[in-house]
Design brief:
454 residues, six-stranded mixed β-sheet, globular, four-stranded mixed β-sheet, alpha/beta
């Protein structure tokens, strides 16, 4: 159902949130027409079902982008538990790293009046969908389930919109990981680098041994994922948030940004030649096969390595990107439910309940490579990488940084524009740091003032 009171509700919100209310208002205007269509279609379908004396089938279509080997194993845990409740998980998996393809498909489905019953929505974007009145509120599950007490405060605030729970959180990914091939490091008597000077010495020895020091794809979101990690290493969470959450134009001209950009370009010396645009599982495979010795990536890469039969601390191990040991650059997996005509509400609420159960939290995140959203999980079920991730995240918001690339920091418009500029700089060696910093500051000014890029 579309909330036709949206303009009235938003009129007093101001612009302190960087234009979020403007974005939601524009989306409301764009989607109002389809909302009427969706309502009509749903009402017609519901009337037909009642006339036939039947009930809607106990099934949920779930749109997501979990398509790699490790991700599929994690999804199967949830689908299996749902099946035990006689509810079918109808898979709508859209390939593509960082959910770029799935995001477009979701918008198309919603505009066509065919919204899935559940969808993967990461970060602040589901707040925009909720502001449109499209998402099912899960208070009837969250309140008796005591979610507020169980969840990390950061996760609780993420799934809360205007006092209502609008998503079910699955797991927390750490992105500032430096994975390394432990067998190669042991054979060459190498120690995981703690500083950038250490990194240079290790990379030199790896290169001399004929091994690519650092796996990397030229795909835009993967380049930007490396870059946001370097920003965190250079500055810490406070400056990081000033850049990517507050979109402070002055912050983009800071010398810390200059240093992060220079580091990004300098690391190309240790990457494959030539650089190619390859999916992240391919880059993870390079690490597994020993073609490359190190890889900076979210811990979904660990889930992939485990799915291939490799073992933590034997075949591979993880540390943090130099300069980020105390910090947690995070992305939270969540599922949101579209309300529609509410005929699927019992099954949707059961799915949310399953997701937040301890057995599913444990099994899903073991396979996915992430950690539980519970603030007090079973640490005995975690490997060394997961325990380090949990310890860092548990230190609180002062040590946490929301991923820009993975939709935790800024809206789609700002994210896409920043990622494109960083990628352009990475590919074009003739582009100066000052040039890209001016462009990024211009993006921040434009988005902050208008809530959109003009």
């Amino acid at each position: 159902m579309i909330d036709t009171r949206l303009p009235e509700r938003l009129s007093g919100q101001g612009t302190d949130n960087g234009g979020r209310w403007l974005t939601a208002y524009r989306n409301w205007m764009a989607l109002l027409a389809f909302g009427c269509l969706l309502s009509c279609v749903s009402s017609t379908a519901g009337a037909a079902a009642l006339a036939n004396g039947s009930q809607p089938p106990a099934s949920l279509q779930v749109l997501h982008w979990w398509t790699s080997a490790g991700e599929r194993k994690a999804v199967d845990v949830i689908a299996g538990k749902l099946a035990e409740e006689n509810i079918q998980w109808r898979d709508a998996a859209i390939p593509g790293g960082a959910g770029l393809g799935a995001s477009k498909v979701l918008k198309s489905m919603v505009l066509a009046g065919k919204a899935p019953e559940a969808t993967q929505l990461n970060g602040i974007v589901f707040g925009e969908w909720a502001d449109l009145g499209l998402l099912l509120e899960l208070d009837d599950v969250a309140t008796p389930g005591n979610w507020q007490k169980l969840l990390f405060p950061t996760v609780w605030s993420l799934v809360l919109n205007r006092g209502h729970v609008v998503a079910a959180p699955l797991g927390i990914h750490r992105i500032n990981n430096l994975f390394y091939n432990k067998k190669i490091f042991d054979r060459l008597n190498l120690t995981p680098p703690k500083t950038w000077a250490d990194f240079g010495r290790v990379a030199d020895k790896l290169k001399q041994a004929g091994i690519t020091p650092l796996a990397q794809s030229s795909e835009a979101w993967q380049v930007a994922t490396l870059f946001e990690t370097l920003v965190l290493a250079e500055s810490g969470p406070a400056y990081y948030r000033s850049l990517f959450v507050d979109l402070n134009p002055l912050a983009f001209g800071d010398q810390r940004m200059t240093h992060a950009l220079k580091r990004l370009r300098a690391l190309k010396e240790w990457m494959p030649t030539p650089l190619r645009e390859r999916p992240w599982p391919d880059m993870t495979r390079q690490l597994a096969d020993g073609e490359a010795a190190m890889f900076v990536m979210g811990d979904w890469a660990k889930g992939e390595l485990l799915a291939w039969g490799l073992n933590t601390d034997q075949d591979f191990a993880c540390t943090t990107v130099p300069g980020t040991a105390d910090y947690h650059l995070y992305s939270v997996d969540t599922l949101a439910m579209f309300a529609g005509d509410y005929s699927h509400q019992p099954a949707q609420e059961k799915l949310a309940q399953i997701i937040m159960s301890q057995p599913v939290q444990t099994a899903y995140n073991q396979l996915k490579g992430a950690i539980s959203v519970w603030r007090a999980p079973d640490l005995s079920k975690m490997d060394s990488c997961a325990r380090a991730s949990w310890a860092a995240f548990s230190k609180g918001s002062a040590y946490q940084a929301p991923s820009l690339v993975h939709r935790m920091a800024a809206d789609e418009t700002a994210k896409d524009a920043i990622v494109a500029e960083v990628h352009r700089y990475f590919i074009d060696d003739k582009m100066s740091e000052s040039d890209v910093q001016r462009k990024l500051a211009s993006i921040a000014r434009t988005v902050t003032k208008t809530g959109k890029l003009e």
